[in-house]
Design goal:
five-stranded antiparallel β-sheet, globular, Jelly Rolls, di-copper center containing domain from catechol oxidase, 13 helices, alpha+beta
């Protein structure tokens, strides 16, 4: 009897992702993910809340079952106060079926969040697209609603909803939405306050759309690193405290985590829809990750399988309008990064502003041209960037830090000298990484030079937005101003 294509691939070591997708009933039509504030989004939130409640109840879904809440939380990262090995031993105390199969799958997929524990930062967007896709399927399975789609939290929307958590997540003890409530969010979040309330400039923005390319180019972060380190990290730290959304190992325990990453995926889809390209190199496209699918079965996909949402059979009810990009445009004059001034000794951060951090030129012939002259003679397409590298912390500080150039000693922190905001979302992971923050300071530097400042050096002030955790001991490894 002849073998069909499906029979053949089922007998192979691994079913190709495209064939797996073809076999999914939900993939026969294109589904739509909705804004959580829309009527459709609110209907989906009711389904989501009921499924989350069931997944969190070990009497209904065993803790080690790939459909359980803990299984999906730990797929992102195991909670900080316990190791993966400890949790595997606790949740799967024996190897009798189905524990043996579940434990093997958990051992393979837990702690695989990409970019936040030493992996290639370019994997951040595709790995999180995959985890949201499979989590969405799991909610369909648990809820019994095959048409369910995960809503997104549109925190960048303008107006009164800007930065405000959907109200369904604030209803403690509510019969319908109580499962979405988490106590350990930052003060004011569960009261309906914006996570950017009182902040000027506002860190909850779409500045990542300024990036023209996906990958890093010298001091230019690229879209993936920019949206990861800036908007994504800011939302985490502004939403939850250090044992909640504010720290990588705890983050996925909060139901809002999944709507946050649905929004990040939507913004990536918006950036692509505007004509911006993803990497096309073979090592990137063929990098693979393994998850549990909606049926609790092992499934593996390569990054190249998930770069087009249309091929994944979903879309968003709306995409963002992406303005013309300004950083790293392919048509810009080629320019190699050139460090002008720097401070390469560590900068410990305390409970208040750290002032007087001098960025100076190293004594070398290449640094003979004063900083002010460099600013005055920038070539076409060239910009200045403030680059902050090697962030470390003993624990998550729980706050973000604003950076200012040439802020007078008697002046209060304000937008005039502001250059950017950094966060320590994954800095306490203590893994080697080339992650960094980079801010275009061209206009600020020109204005300061016109005021007679930035002649040969620059002075940096670093100020926390709030009170950092006393045990965090955050440190900035180095800061520089780079011409590119």
């Amino acid at each position: 009897m002849p073998f069909s294509r499906r029979t053949f691939v089922k007998g192979a070591a691994a079913i190709p992702f495209a064939v797996w997708l073809e076999e999914q009933a939900w993939a026969q039509t294109v589904s739509v993910r909705f804004d959580a504030a829309s009527a459709n989004g609110q209907a989906m939130l009711k389904i989501y809340a009921a499924a989350v409640k069931k997944m969190m109840n070990a009497a209904q879904v065993k803790e080690g079952d790939p459909h359980s809440w803990i299984f999906w939380w730990y797929t992102h990262f195991v909670r900080r106060d316990r190791t993966k090995a400890q949790e595997l031993a606790r949740i799967y105390p024996n190897n009798t079926p189905p524990n043996d199969v579940w434990k093997a799958l958990a051992n393979e997929v837990w702690d695989t969040c990409q970019s936040h524990s030493g992996q290639d930062p370019n994997y951040f967007l595709p790995w999180h697209r995959m985890v949201v896709l499979y989590f969405e399927q799991t909610i369909r399975n648990v809820s019994g609603v095959p048409t369910f789609t995960l809503p997104y939290w549109n925190y960048t929307v303008s107006g009164p909803r800007h930065g405000v958590i959907p109200p369904e997540f604030t209803k403690k003890g509510d019969a319908t939405f109580g499962s979405l409530y988490v106590e350990k969010r930052n003060p004011g979040v569960n009261a309906g306050n914006s996570i950017s309330k009182g902040l000027n400039p506002d860190p909850i923005n779409l500045n990542a759309f300024k990036q023209c390319a996906y990958e890093r180019n010298g001091s230019i972060m690229g879209f993936c690193r920019d949206i990861d380190g800036n908007l994504h990290g800011q939302v985490h730290v502004k939403t939850g405290n250090p044992v909640n959304m504010g720290d990588v190992p705890w983050a996925a325990g909060d139901p809002i985590f999944w709507l946050h990453h649905c929004q990040i995926d939507r913004l990536w889809a918006s950036w692509n829809a505007a004509g911006h390209k993803n990497p096309s190199g073979v090592p990137f496209l063929q990098k693979s990750f393994t998850f549990a699918d909606g049926n609790g079965k092992r499934v593996t996909a390569m990054i190249g399988d998930v770069l087009d949402v249309a091929k994944l059979k979903y879309r968003y009810d709306s995409l963002e309008t992406v303005p013309p990009c300004t950083l790293g445009a392919p048509t810009a004059a080629a320019s190699a990064p050139r460090q002008l001034v720097a401070k390469t000794t560590p900068i410990p951060l305390g409970p208040g502003p750290v002032r007087g951090q001098k960025l100076e030129a190293s004594p070398s012939p290449q640094a003979s041209v004063p900083l002010g002259d460099r600013i005055a003679k920038l070539g076409p397409g060239q910009k200045l960037f403030l680059v902050v590298s090697n962030l470390q912390a003993k624990a998550q500080p729980g706050v973000t830090y604003n950076l200012y150039l040439e802020l007078p000693a008697t002046a209060a922190a304000g937008p005039a000298n502001f250059v950017g905001s950094i966060n320590f979302f994954d800095a306490a992971m203590h893994m080697p990484s080339d992650k960094f923050f980079s801010f275009d300071i061209t206009d600020v530097a020109k204005r300061l030079k016109a005021q007679g400042k930035l002649a040969t050096s620059a002075e940096l002030t670093i100020a926390p937005e709030g009170t950092p955790a006393s045990e965090a001991a955050p440190v900035i490894g180095s800061v520089s101003i780079v011409q590119q």
